[in-house]
Design goal:
Helix content: over 70%
Strand content: under 5%
Mean pLDDT: 93
Number of domains: 1
Largest sheet: none
Structural class: mainly alpha
Order of helices and strands: HH
Shape: elongated
Length: about 70
């Protein structure tokens, strides 16, 4: 196997995006009463899922960016 850290980081970022999308889908199911949980939990999960899918990959990429000499 190839031990390339960039490849591993790429897969971590993609997993983060997909997990955020899954959280958003579950949140929408809660909000639409398909899952029996309080709607407030659905709204919180919706925001967390959006942050997870849209913001956190950029934060990780910035953290992992190679510093300039």
């Amino acid at each position: 196997m190839n031990d390339d850290p960039a490849r591993a980081r790429y897969f971590v970022i993609q997993a983060l995006r997909w997990s955020g999308l899954a959280i958003v889908v579950v949140a929408l199911m809660i909000i639409e009463d398909k899952i029996d949980l309080p709607k407030e939990a659905g709204y919180v999960l919706f925001v967390v899922g959006l942050l997870d899918a849209l913001i956190m990959p950029s934060v990780l990429a910035r953290l992992w960016k190679t510093p300039l000499p």
